[in-house]
Structure prediction request, 365 residues.
Amino acid sequence: MTSPLFSPLHLRQLALTNRIVIAPMCQYSAQDGNVGDWHVMHLGNLSHSGAALLIIEATGVAPEGRITPNCPGLWSDANEAAFARVLKAVRQYSAMPVAIQLAHAGRKASCAVPWQGGRQLPEQDGGWTTVAPSAIPFNESDAAPHALEKTGMQRIRDAFVQAARRANRLGIDAIELHAAHGYLLHQFLSPLTNERTDGYGGILENRMRFPLEIFAAVRAVWPENKPMGIRISATDWVEGGWDLEQTVALAAELKARGCDFIHVSSGGLSPKQQMAAAPGFQVPFARRIKQETGLTTIAVGLVTEAKHAEAIVAEDSADLVALARGMLYDPRWPWHAAAELGAQVSAPPQYWRSSSANLFKPESR
Ligand SMILES: Cc1cc2nc3c(=O)[nH]c(=O)nc-3n(C[C@H](O)[C@H](O)[C@H](O)COP(=O)(O)O)c2cc1C
Prediction:
């Protein structure tokens, strides 16, 4: 019997050879938003993992939307050229489809990289004034973000659209909008960060408006044959915050606007969150969204065992399973999973002698 984890899936016309996704992972290694040689190595390495889809890290659609000064961007010709160079190198030796996570960090922008403490950076240290739906800082000690006016929101929407156009020119296969982990679009969704009194705040319908407008605007310029999805936090893990009920409502609205997948994470909005992370702890959220909306779901979060990932797909809790840390720890995770589950993975022929001949199949698109 074929392994459910290694069964193919189509997202629009994008063929995925199995159900394993490499989750987006910030590398904090770009200069002025430009990706470079680190990304050639990092993405090149992951592109030989045998996963079905490689999602490029949170990529700022505007300079002030970067989490740190070293996060990549896609707002300029220079950014686009830098990505073209990296992708050319990766694609020369890998046929793995590549998605990009388009992001704006809102009030969580302008931070130091994690290995330099991760705190908010003041302007004199290379930081900038952040923007958000309301002037509420993440930490009480942080400088408050500037509350966005209509023109600022329009600029951000246009920036997402322009970045999507650039992504298409780069031959990127899919877009994932970042609406999770307390970044700008999540800040609009959650009542804890959105205290607006205009049409973009208050009732759920209003809080969803800006993320949905951005989704629709990007979808409108993203080619019909290419999939586009979203990453959300299914709950803030804070009483009175964004929760699963609201996420299900959002998922239904997204589906109506042509959303092809929803990548189900949680948390990141508030320092007050009470999160009890355990293996597969976010899978029930993906399952509920899938059951109620029929949307293609990606489950993520502390999945490290092949049999666990297999069960998530076999039990129909999610259509795809994403790994982040597990993939950094073991970039051949899908090879090992395929060996354990009696399946095959795509790998470059240079590496075929590493294991039994029937583990590998030629790369195909
Ligand atoms: C180094 C690192 C960087 C990350 N960067 C991003 C990111 O750019 N975008 C995002 O949505 N999540 C990011 N995450 C979260 C992961 O995508 C993932 O959701 C989380 O680590 C849980 O999955 P895991 O248990 O398999 O690591 C990052 C996680 C790590 C460890």
Summary: The chain has one domain: 4-361. The longest helix spans residues 150-169.
